[in-house]
Amino acid sequence: MATDFDAEATGWDTPEKVDRARVLAAEIVRRVPVRQEWTALDVGAGTGLLGRELGHHVRRVVLTDTSAGMLDAARAATADDPGRYVTRRIDLTRDPLGERVDLVVSAMALHHIPDTGAILAAIRDALNPGGWVALADLDADPKNHFHSDDHDGHRGIDRDDLGRRLRDLGFEDVTAETGTRIRKTKHDVEREFTVFLVTGHLPGDAAPRG
């Protein structure tokens, strides 16, 4: 799968995706008490569209992905601010991040990760006490109207099930709302799809850290 995304990296940042990242970043900042002193982690960051938008609101952003091509594009896009952005090619379902962060975000990545339970546990383990999650993804799409017919990932994500999983992992104040919408045509039929945003935090004090 990483190879497929490598091939798509150079043309990934379409105006529609850039706009979607801006909308989701604004929703995250509205729902999460983001602090300028925080470090954020963008899981499945791709070219870093969401993390780059959030970079205006935090001290540092770690952009992670399994696709070398996507991360090459992310590094090029953030080259003028290397102190704020760092890229890491890592599969968090297998290897720990190696540091703690205050906020974990993700946009349209969870449904591409085979082991959802493993990535959610990795997200929890990467967070400081009181740390927040803000996970955006495609709502459940059981008939696979959104992706190509050979799509081998999840057919969207059930937002209520994701919320329950986060609560089971110890997250508090978990909420799920629609973050944005996408219009897409498949087999000559245009449909509108909803993208949810689930937020919540671990117990503890998300105090500023130097």
What does this structure look like?
- With 210 residues, the chain is of the alpha/beta class.
- The chain has one domain: Vaccinia Virus protein VP39 (Rossmann fold, 3-Layer(aba) Sandwich), CATH 3.40.50.
- Helices cover 29% and strands 30% of the residues.
- It contains 6 helices and 7 strands, in the order ααβαβαββαβαββ.
- It has helices spanning 2-8, 15-31, 49-54, 68-77, 116-126, 159-168; strands spanning 39-42, 60-65, 85-89, 101-107, 127-138, 172-186, 189-201.
- The chain has a 7-stranded mixed beta sheet.
- It is globular, with a radius of gyration of 16 Å.
- The model has no long low-confidence stretch (mean pLDDT 91).
- Keywords: Transferase.
- Residues 41-133 form the Methyltransferase type domain.
- One of its GO terms (molecular function) is transferase activity.
- InterPro entries: Methyltransf_12, SAM-dependent_MTases_sf.
- This is Methyltransferase type 12 domain-containing protein.
- What value does the average pLDDT take? 91
Judged by helices, strands and strand pairing, the structural class is alpha/beta
From the alpha-carbon coordinates, what is the Rg to the nearest angstrom? 16 Å
Low-confidence stretches: none
Enumerate how many helices there are, as a single number. 6
Query: CATH superfamily, please?
Result: Vaccinia Virus protein VP39
> Number of folding domains?
1
How far the N terminus sits from the C terminus, by CA atoms, comes to 37 Å
Succession of helices and strands:
HHEHEHEEHEHEE
- CATH structural architecture: 3-Layer(aba) Sandwich
Shape: globular
Strand element count: 7
Protein name: Methyltransferase type 12 domain-containing protein
GO molecular function: transferase activity
Pfam families: Methyltransf_12
Domain Methyltransferase type: 41-133
